[in-house]
Each structure stands twice: as C-alpha cells, then as structure tokens.
Specification:
The protein is of the alpha/beta class. Helix content is about 20%, strand content about 15%. It has three domains: about 100 residues, Peptidase S8 propeptide/proteinase inhibitor I9 (Alpha-Beta Plaits), CATH 3.30.70.80; about 325 residues, Rossmann fold (3-Layer(aba) Sandwich), CATH 3.40.50; about 35 residues, no CATH class. The longest helix is centred in the C-terminal third of the chain and has 16 residues. It is globular and about 65 Å long. The protein binds calcium ion (CA) (3 copies).
C-alpha cells in the first residue's frame, strides 16, 4: 500500500525519478539486462541521486577494498560482513563514476552500484497504466464495487475468536483462514516484517512480538553480541539500534494481518492468533529505504531465527536487476538459513512482471538469469469479489498467487479513500494515514489497499502451515510448493499468475485424506501433553506409547 500523496513526496525526496532515468525499455526482457552494472552516463545521475555506492568485495579482501576506496577519495561509511559489502559516500570534489571505473580494475572488488532507494510499492491505479488495461474504472468515478460478503462465514460456531472486528475481515474468509482456525491458530516460527517497523506497544500486537531472549532491554549493552544494542523486538537499519518503532503505519498494518492477537476481545485477528513477530525497520517513517539497508535487514532477520520474511516493498517495474543484486544475494543467504521470503508483486496496475520485473518479488521468476530463488513468493492482490484488484501487477511466470488486497477508489471529487472493501488491520499510534482512511476502534485500526496487504496474508499462512506437526519437517522450498499447490484456482486469475489461484488454507484441517501423517512419535508412559495432540479425526495416524 502506498498513499498517493506520499508517492510524490518519495519521488521528490529520494530521487526515484533519477533512478528511473536509467535506460530500460519495456521491450527489453529482464534476462537481457547487462550484468556489468550500470555503465554509461546514465549511471552518473544515479550515483549523484543517491549519494552513496555499494562496493561488493571479494570474500576475505575487506581491508584491501577499504584501502582502495579511501585511495580513490571515497568515504567508507559501513561494512556489512555477511554480504561482503561496503557502503561508501564521497566529498563533492570526487567524481563518483570516475572513482568507480578505477576501483573496478581492482581484483579485490566484484561490483559497484549506486545505493538505490526502495519503498512501499506506490499505488498506481487505472488510468496511468502502460500495460493491458482491463476493467479500468474512470479515474474519478466512484467505486462500482459492491461487497459480496464482508462477514467471516466459515468459523462462527463454538470457539470462534471474540475479536470485535472479526466480521470485517473478509480477507480471512477469502483465504479460508477461519476454517484453518478449527485446528491451527498458532505459528511457532518467527516471522520478520521487513517494513517501516512495528508499533510493538499496539494493544493487538504487543503479546505477539518476538522477544529476544538473550538481550537485556534498556541496559545500553549488546548482551547477545549480535552487533545491535538492546534489540528486544527487532532492528532499526537506519539507526543501527534495537528500536524498530513504526511511525509511518504501513509495517504495523502488515504485522496485524500476519499476527493480530486472536481471541483477546480487542480489534482484529491475524492469520495466526499467536505468533512471534520480528520488527525489522528497513523503511523510514516516509516509507523509503535503500538497497544496503534492506540487505542489512534481511541478514539480521535470518540470523535472528526468522523462518518467514514478509516484504511489502519493492523497486519500480523495470529497475535494472544489477541495481538490486545485493538483495538477491541476501535472500539467497536467507534461503540457505531455511527462510521463506514473501514479497509484493507491486501496484502498477497490470504491469506484467514477466517482462518488466519488480524486485525483490521477481527474484522468484524462473527466467531470472541465475534461476529463480526457490524461497521467494511473489504475491498479487484480489478485491472483495475475488477479482484481480484494480492496481495489482501480474505475471504468468513470475507472480505466484493472489491474496486479499482490496481496491483503489476515488470519491466524486477525485480524492483517494478507503472503506470496508479494503483490508482492516492495526495502526501505529503515530502514523501518516489521512482522514480519507476509514478507521475502526477509535483510530487504532484502519482499512488499506495494496499488494502490501496481500503479502502478509501469505506470510502468515506460510507460518501457520509450517507450524503444523505434519508439515513442520518441510523445507522452505517445500512449504512454498505445498501452499501454492493448495491455492484455489479461479477463472478471474487465468493467465495473470503462475497458479491462477488465490491463497487457501482450507486444506489445513481437512482431515487425514490429504496431508501426510506426522512422524510417528514414541511417547513414554505416562504420555506427556506434547504427545497427545493427534486429533481423533486422524485415525490413520498412529501414536505410539512405550
Ligand atoms: Ca543484541
Ligand atoms: Ca541490552
Ligand atoms: Ca485481537
């Protein structure tokens, strides 16, 4: 989700326009992008716009690379060991492109790129779309959208959660999360929200924040020796410190969809009633960040034990792959660590991500020059009528599935607004949402649209399924394959994404006909509670005692 007015602010503040000037045409397939990063005069503008460059050095040659950077007049601001990266700036008198050309002659240096800005995917609704306009409403027309159902229908009986806004969470119903809650409500894995941070004091999130057990809060010390002082709830890549407070609102909203506390009599309920949310602030309070910051955030997350990463962010379509290569490398390290990376397909109104990639989501494209990263899931959005949202990007090959994201709407005066057909979730105490955003619960909850909102539905689902005993042994690649294979095919998505399907958790409690039996557990007698979980509805699965 991205507010239209902030899109302009970000374009101005962070030089998105200058990055966009790098010559990439829609006709040029992603695979044909030159891998030698950004030669030519266009690069100059990109370096000047960002004021920073990322230098990737050969493993073990950090000192040599640092020395050479200094020799060329660069200022080494940060060293990021896990990625073999340096972040460099330069004084006015230094020509960045010239320094880069000289440095690339060094055997210690692999590549050099500008530190490109990344952001919440801006909403680009109908009327501005370059590709395949379908069902485009007139830009200023009031919404013709009528909700088929705004109630959660599948889980209203005994044991339904008591959260007051349950009946407004049409997205939970659309993915059959309410059916899954019949047997699965809790994710035991850590889910990292790579975003603007999380309001960890929010009434419906505080209990589901992951608490770093090895860090003593507020003592000014890095007790667990991970390089970050007092990182109890997560990491702030801008300060390098342990306070990931969200003052934008986007990250807190995504967090509530993954894991708003269930059955606490307050607000909403996430896909998981209970989960461990790790706040990784890679976007600032304007919703913008950079390649280097995102890399640091990803590496922090997997090192902190995150098994799912939710990334409702991205670069604009057609951004050269070479510009974001360090992010691919970081997601690859996360894959080795066993983590799944869920990313928004973007909101550029039917941009075809197969031909104009949106990174990092498009790193899951099988046509990537280095092959798809097996742990990346690219998420499109559907509206309340289970049709593709009027902003969502698509891609028959590179976008995997769709999840609830609402619809962009304008009132008769042409002003953007949100309503109950969008996604309701938690709001940070300090946020950037204007009066046109419909709210609930005295402002603590709000409705937002975007593939940003679709993404956390999938992240939450991966975490929930993975925590089931029968699936807990699966690898990241396998859990991704399982969830994609169980998605629900709909005609409306034909040709628009790889599965042509909507996320669906209906299989989770479907009984023993489908899912494999869990590993047989040999229990001592008397049987401890941990051995007694096997439901009577799974008679074919056996529990041994000894
Ligand atoms: Ca620490
Ligand atoms: Ca501490
Ligand atoms: Ca709640």
């Amino acid at each position: 989700m991205k507010l239209l007015h902030t899109a302009l602010v970000i374009a101005t503040l962070f030089g998105v326009g200058a990055i966009g000037a790098i010559p990439v045409t829609a006709a040029q397939p992603a695979a044909a992008q030159p891998e030698a990063p950004l030669p030519g005069p266009a690069a100059e503008a990109a370096y000047e716009a960002t004021g920073e460059m990322i230098v990737r050095y050969e493993a073990g040659k950090a000192d040599e690379a640092i020395a050479e950077c200094k020799e060329r007049g660069l200022v080494v601001k940060e060293v990021h060991g896990p990625g073999n990266l340096l972040l460099c700036g330069w004084p006015k008198e230094v020509k960045a492109v010239t320094a880069r050309t000289e440095l690339l002659k060094s055997k210690a240096i692999v590549y050099i790129i500008p530190n490109a800005p990344v952001s919440i995917p801006p909403l680009q609704p109908a009327g501005k779309a370059p590709l395949a306009p379908r069902e485009a409403p007139a830009a200023a027309a009031p919404p013709a959208l009528e909700a088929k159902s705004t109630s959660v229908s599948g889980y209203t009986g005994a044991g339904a959660p008591n959260d007051p806004f349950l009946n407004k969470l049409w997205g939970m119903s659309a993915i059959n999360a309410d059916k899954a809650w019949g047997c699965a409500r809790e994710a035991k894995v850590v889910v990292a929200v790579l975003d603007t941070g999380i309001d960890y004091n929010h009434e419906d999130l505080a209990a589901n924040m992951r608490r770093n057990p090895y860090e003593v809060p507020g003592d000014g010390l890095d007790n667990d020796g991970n390089g970050v002082v007092d990182d109890v709830f997560g990491f702030n890549t801008f300060t390098g410190g342990g306070d990931p407070m969200d003052r934008h609102g986007h990250g807190t909203h995504c967090a509530g969809t993954i894991g708003g506390v269930g059955n606490n009599g307050l607000g909403v309920v996430g896909v998981n009633w209970k989960v461990q949310l790790l706040a990784v602030k890679v976007l600032n309070d304007n919703g913008s960040g950079s390649t280097f910051g995102l890399v640091k955030g990803i590496d922090y997350a997997w090192r902190a034990g995150a098994k799912v990463m939710s990334a409702s962010l991205g670069w604009q379509p057609g951004t050269p792959r070479a510009l974001v290569l360090p992010v691919r490398e970081a997601i690859s390290r996360a894959e080795v660590a066993g983590a799944v990376f869920v990313a928004a397909a973007g909101n550029n109104y039917r941009n075809n991500n197969d031909t104009r990639p949106v990174y990092p989501a498009s790193f899951g494209d099988p046509s990537d020059p280095d092959g798809a990263l097996g742990n990346v899931i690219s998420v499109a959005a559907i509206n309340i009528n289970q049709q593709p949202s009027n902003f969502t990007n698509v891609g028959k090959r590179s976008v995997h599935l769709a999840a609830p994201g609402g619809e962009v709407k304008f009132d008769s005066a042409g002003a953007f607004f949100t309503d109950e057909t969008d996604i309701l979730s938690s709001v940070a105490a300090t946020n950037t949402f204007g009066p046109n955003f419909k709210r609930e619960g005295g402002g603590k909850y709000a409705y937002l649209p975007g593939t940003s909102m679709a993404t956390p539905h999938v992240s939450g689902a991966i975490a929930l399924v993975w925590s089931r005993p029968e699936y807990s042994g699966l690898s990241g690649r396998e859990i991704k394959g399982l969830v994609l294979s169980k998605a629900r095919r709909v005609d409306a998505l034909k040709g628009l994404c790889a599965t042509e399907a909507i996320l669906d958790l209906g299989f989770v409690c479907a009984g023993d006909a489908d899912p494999p039996c869990p590993p047989i557990i040999i229990c001592p007698v008397p049987c401890p509670p941990s051995c007694a979980w096997l439901p009577p509805s799974r008679p074919k699965c056996r529990l041994f005692r000894r």
